[in-house]
Amino acid sequence: MKRIAIQGVKGCFHHAAVSTYFVGCKYKLMECSSFRKLAFSVAKSDVDIGVMAIENTIAGTILTNYSLLSEYNLKIIGEVYMPIKHHLMAYPGQDIEDIKEIYSHPMALLQCESFIDAHSWIKISEYFDTASAAKHISIYKKRGLAAIASENAAKEYGLEIIYKNIQTIESNFTRFFIIKNCYEQNENDFFNKASLRFKILHTTGSLSNILSIISSIGINMTKIQSIPIIQRPWEYSFYVDVIFNNIKDYEKMKQRIQKITCLHKLSIMGEYKNGRIRS
Question: What domains can you pick out in the chain, each with its CATH number?
């Protein structure tokens, strides 16, 4: 039975991502109150695997999570894309006029800004997890308090949904990384996507040289993200995701990038199957 760490509690979107990726597998959840605790648990082998949100189509990239992956030297072994539908829920027998305050995770609040703006008289408070906010209301039978969370959270904690699908954009997705503290590539493992991290020297055209290599070989770059390097102001690490059909092209790309004189360091964060075409 796999031990899997998530940020949040049973009924949260991380839990849904685990159920989707590990369908048919038996697992035991380790609930973590923060992403740092999640990363630490994976790094110290308190669990076998971690599932960590990395970006959302409305709220954008969770920059701190890229930093945690680097800090703890964690490896990406897979990904899953989850449709995210947010609902406003409360202790049964109430409607929107009874609600004085809404609790939810900061990322969920960002994804529901239009709804929140339309109900500006309601106080908004950040909570460390969507499902935990629902659980808090349920345990203490809090009236006048609502949570923004998933339908699973409402069912899990016996809350009543007041408004459904309150995310600003209907087509709302979050990408989750499947992470481990080490990674040994089996020659039989199929992968067609990789996440890279590199640092470059401050020279003219250094970044464009690397991007040109990726493009010239015919590899599709699906993401590039810069993250500030702590204690080195105005210097950055770059995180790049690439998708390829031919592993030989991918190996050629790595070899050519390694030869660039402006490159300071190249790290392979993970090689895995593209989650958007997961069978």
Answer: 2-83+172-180 (3.40.190.10), 87-163 (3.40.190.10), 193-272 (3.30.70.260)
Number of H helices, E strands in the chain: 9, 15
Write the Ramachandran bin of 114: left for phi over 0, alpha for psi from -120 to 50, otherwise beta: alpha
- Report CA-CA distances (Å) from 209 to 153, 167, 222, 262: 47, 39, 17, 9
Which one-letter DSSP state was computed for residue 8? S
> pTM of the predicted model, to two decimals?
0.93
E strand or H helix at 117: helix 113-118
- Distance, in Å, from the CA atom of 212 to the CA atom of 206, rounded to the nearest integer, reads 10
Helix (H, G, I), strand (E, B) or coil at 250: helix
pLDDT averaged over 10-residue windows placed end to end, the chain, 279 residues: 96 97 95 98 97 97 95 96 97 97 97 98 97 97 97 98 97 97 74 94 85 95 91 86 96 94 88 80
Select from 118, 157, 169 the least CA-distant residue to 147. Answer: 157
Q: How many residues does the chain have?
A: 279
